[in-house]
Design brief:
With about 350 residues, the chain is an alpha/beta fold. The chain has three domains: about 140 residues, Conserved hypothetical protein from pyrococcus furiosus pfu- 392566-001, ParB domain, CATH 3.90.1530; about 40 residues; about 110 residues, no CATH class. Helices cover about 45% and strands about 10% of the residues. It has 13 helices and eight strands. The strands form two sheets. Strands 1-5-3-4-2 form a five-stranded mixed sheet. It has a three-stranded antiparallel sheet with strand order 6-7-8, with helices on one face. β3 and β4 form a beta hairpin. α11 packs antiparallel against α12 and α11 runs antiparallel to α13. About 30% of the residues are buried.
Length: about 350
């Protein structure tokens, strides 16, 4: 199947003047009794297509605020993450799929962006980087918050660059805000299973010190909650896991500074769980210390007492250059040690 999202297909195939059928009428092309997962999803995408098939307008990103109910964390977007989208917008002279906004009566912005956060960020970046002529193509909808949430979720569900943790936090806030705290009611409205919804929300119960052990929020998969949450409930587990997570987080940082591959999420989970079995958490391997120019300076290891062992290799670098490379490593160790107290 094409990697093009089902949302795009729904928009492309929707009629120009769609008619909303009477309640209870089957629109999926199969008997109404076949209430399969696929049919429920297609009904959801069909609803989105009916809602957003409207004439478009052109806006500057600065005219829009970002709706807080969207799952995507706007602050995590950057040029590297959106490079392919930026290139596509340049090639096409704008965003092919319209964003969705709604009018706001108060505040400094005329519109609030409901879906299209990546497109908004990319065009804002292009406006600031030699392409001021490119505008955001959008449609205006009159949506209440619950409807806006469902519409945004339909699009975001097919995006691979939204982490399970972002989605889980978004679902947790929405179930309280729009569905009276009843997950079953929310699952029915979103046309997803209650168990799937519960897995996402459960992920939000993982403490921040565990999350920090992962190289990126993208590595935090919903399935990890099923292993980590029971482990956290064991006697004394918080202290042991805190030490293990801190060591893994330090190693992740050292690997980044040495331009090495991060520890995969599945290995992070395995090391956290093994810390509860072993007498002490698994010790991280030594990490290479590199200068900003990529030159190997030595290796560094941090033990469970948060002591640093630095091994320097013979180098032609001056003392100032060596100290400049070591300073952020030492500062980070001091910060992490302070957090343990």
């Amino acid at each position: 199947m094409s990697r093009r999202s089902l949302m795009d297909e729904a928009l492309a195939s929707a009629p120009t003047n769609p008619k909303i059928p009477p309640a209870g009428e089957d629109t999926s092309g199969v008997p109404a009794t076949k209430n399969t997962f696929t049919n429920r999803r297609l009904e959801g995408f069909g609803e989105a297509a009916r809602m957003v098939k409207r004439p478009t307008i052109r806006l500057k990103p600065s005219e829009c605020s970002i709706w807080s109910g969207n799952a995507r964390d706007y602050s995590l977007l950057d040029e590297h993450r959106l490079r392919s989208l930026i290139d596509s917008i340049i090639a096409e002279g704008g965003n092919r799929i319209p964003a969705v906004v709604r009018r706001v009566s108060e505040g400094e912005h005329r519109y609030e962006l409901i879906i299209g956060t990546r497109r908004h960020w990319a065009i804002a970046w292009l406006n600031a980087n030699h392409h001021p002529e490119i505008e955001l193509v959008a449609i205006i909808e009159d949506l209440d918050d619950e409807t806006a949430f469902r519409l945004a979720d339909i699009e975001n569900r097919e995006r691979e660059d939204i982490s399970d943790l972002e989605r889980g936090r978004n679902y947790k806030a929405a179930v309280e805000a729009y569905y009276g705290g009843v997950q079953l009611r929310m699952a029915e409205r979103l046309k997803i299973s209650k168990s799937q919804l519960a897995r996402y929300i459960a992920l939000t119960e993982i403490p921040d010190f565990i999350v920090s052990a992962f190289a990126s929020p993208m590595d935090m998969h919903a399935k990890y909650a099923e292993k980590l949450l029971p482990a956290l409930k064991k006697d004394g587990a918080l202290d042991v896991l805190s030490v293990a997570a801190e060591e893994i987080a330090s190693e992740q940082s050292f690997r980044r500074s040495g331009d090495e591959e991060p520890i995969p999420g599945v290995d992070v989970v395995a090391r956290l769980l093994s810390s509860l079995v072993n007498e002490k958490p698994a010790r991280p391997s030594k990490a290479v210390i590199r200068t900003d120019g990529g030159q190997a300076l030595g290796r560094i290891e941090r033990n469970k007492q948060t002591l640093l062992t630095i091994s320097l290799e013979p180098s032609e670098l001056g003392v100032d250059a060596i100290l400049e490379t070591l300073r952020p490593i030492i500062e980070q160790s001091r910060i992490m040690r302070a957090k343990r107290r």
